[in-house]
Amino acid sequence: MIRPAVPTDAQAVVPLIDIVFEEMEIPALMKLPKTTLYPVFEQAFLLKDYRYGFAQTFVHEQNGRVDGILVGYPHGQEAHIDDAFAPLLPKIGIAQDAALFPDTETYSGEWYVDTLAVADEARGHGIGTALLTGVEPLLKARGEHLLSLNVDQVNPRAEKLYRRVGYQKHGELMIGSHRYNHMLKAL
């Protein structure tokens, strides 16, 4: 079942978000032990307006267990999507005015799929596909017409999944130290 996340999903969702943090190789986060990082991100998950808050998150739940997530938001929120998290940064030894995600990842008119992650033991069972296609009617009902995402160019398996569900490459950009293909799908 795919559903919007709720605050009580925090403990299940944060390790899935961390999968993407590790792939992105964010230096400030890589040096922190999970015992320090996870409680702060669980607290941040409760912030309605934060990039990785419950309000931006959809979960795939099976047998009472969250085994996949899709996090996203409209382009118009990107400029301030991390503001709510800034007061928590000192808890993990990062200055409050630091930007963990300084790069622009979206363009006008897009609803951006920021994060798609599936638990290791659940991979290969169609959960990523279910999340990508399952959120479409929910987003269309909200009035969204264009979805976007960025896929690391060193991850052809993920790009194959995105192409299979209808995304097409429309450009390239740098996010951190990685080059990404920017992909779009009209609803």
From TrEMBL:
N-acetyltransferase domain residues: 1-187
This protein's record includes keyword Mitochondrion: no
Keyword Cell wall biogenesis/degradation: no
Bilayer-spanning residue ranges: none
Keyword annotations from UniProtKB, A to Z: Acyltransferase, Transferase
UniProt cross-references to Gene3D superfamilies, sorted A to Z: 3.40.630.30
Pfam families assigned: Acetyltransf_1
Classification via PANTHER family: AMINOALKYLPHOSPHONATE N-ACETYLTRANSFERASE-RELATED, AMINOALKYLPHOSPHONATE N-ACETYLTRANSFERASE-RELATED-RELATED
Stated name of the protein: GNAT family N-acetyltransferase
Source organism of this protein record: Lacticaseibacillus baoqingensis
